[in-house]
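Run log, item B.
One chain of 541 residues. Sequence copied directly from the ordering sheet:
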Amino acid sequence: MKKKYVALARVSSREQEREGLSLDVQEDALRAYAGRHDGVIVKLWRIAETASKKDERTTFKEMVGYVKTHAADLDGILFYKIDRAARNLPDYVKLEELESEYGVPFISISQPTENTPAGRMMRRTMANMAAFFTEQQSLDVKAGLARRVESGLFMGKAPFGYRNVRIDKRGLIEVHPENAAKVRRIFHLYAFHNHTLDTLLDALHTENVTYTASVPRFGRSKLYEILRDRSYIGEIEYQGQWMPGKHPPLIDRPTWDRVQVLLGDKVRRSHDLLYASELIRCGHCGRPITGERVIKKAKSGEREYVYYRCAGYLAEGHPRVRVRDAHVEGEVLALFDRLRVADPEVRDWFVAVLRAKTQGEQEASRVRADDLQRQLSQVRQQQDRLVNMRLADEIDADTYARKGTELRDRVAGLELQLQACSRSRDESAELAIRTFELSQSLKEKWLVADNDAKRRILEIIGLNYILIDVNLVCEMRKPFGLLAEGLPSEQNRGGRIRTDDFLVPNQALYQTELHPERSLYSVLFGHRTGRLGSRGVNPRK
């Protein structure tokens, strides 16, 4: 009877180039050896140069398991060379166990050794040399990649928006003209158009922004990956750290920072119902208010109605209350009516108070800007020291990358705050006045706005919307709370307050007879809690 062998052929791309050890060459040599020894290979495993470490380990484990199961029928395990059998010592030990415990000989056809103490010692020496070569090669490759990354060059496959090119035999990346425009559009839509990931998918599809020709529609996970990829601000990832790169960024830093803040908020909207999607909370249990569409049949045909209710209203003891969207809409519109100021003198007085307030804010903004500039100088000095420490080899590459990323983020954040301070200092007075003007035209804007714009208006004028029974209660943002309660007029001020009283910067107390216990500053710009509706503002229950 012919002998039965199993065999393993393994090759990597570099070794195939250097030694000509293709899988076909090894397989032919292994079958020729089996034939010369009156045998046949009953099963052969091949590990190609494209195999991942996981696939390679799976194949090796499969071979070991097969040998253990069929050990009684096998006459040996064939390999082309010792280093083809095992790339590390633990794997080699498993092969020796198969020989000593299961009686299946280990046979290297191009490096034969006897099954004696001297022969096994020789095999172990060659296995040690193979393991050393593999480990040293891995270190050399990692060192080369680290040097490449530290020099600012991208490695591996280019992210979406870039493409790999070879220039002077060096692998580089360049901007992909079509896909880069898609990446910029994705960031712009998410940053400035009030989108979630789900609505962004639909917006891209509507604008015919495709992923690839074969897969036109972006996936949700792919969008998230793009919005989180720091490659688009000119950085390179290496071993979980980000370092400065030489490739051109696609996204400016303020837009990037805005997108990260929005992603961190984890905004989710499962549908387009205006007052759902966690805008309002239940006053009974605190759960979000959700919406539902109900189709009812009538003589004139089917009609759709929208109801809002607590997400947990079926719980035991919970009020079974559903509110029509028209009811909520009515209360909101009534609130807008109460924000109007009809008296021209009162409007002028309110604008003057806004201007007086912003004078103090401008001074505070200047102080804040000076402090931010000092912090920015300190962080930049830290960046210089970090570079010097790396050049002097006082810190390793991982520490340099991690700390460098932290400092770059701090610099970007401080620069963004400085810009905000500058805008606040220059525009705060006009912004306050525009806010007041907005309050005078909310109803007109509301009636022509889409759901996204309406939701933004609600977020501007109030926060912490609560549905108590059928009444909608919210905490009014400054200065809309005072407008909703009603501004002090000449009649209720008794002539004791003049517009000039409010033009002194940083005046400590602006007392009014309407609120003698509080300053006008807090009256105008503190939060207000009130019920939205036509019957006035009541305290929250």
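Observations after the first pass:
- The radius of gyration is 36 Å.
- Residues 265-271, 489-529, 533-541 have pLDDT under 50 and may be disordered.
Flagged for discussion on Thursday.
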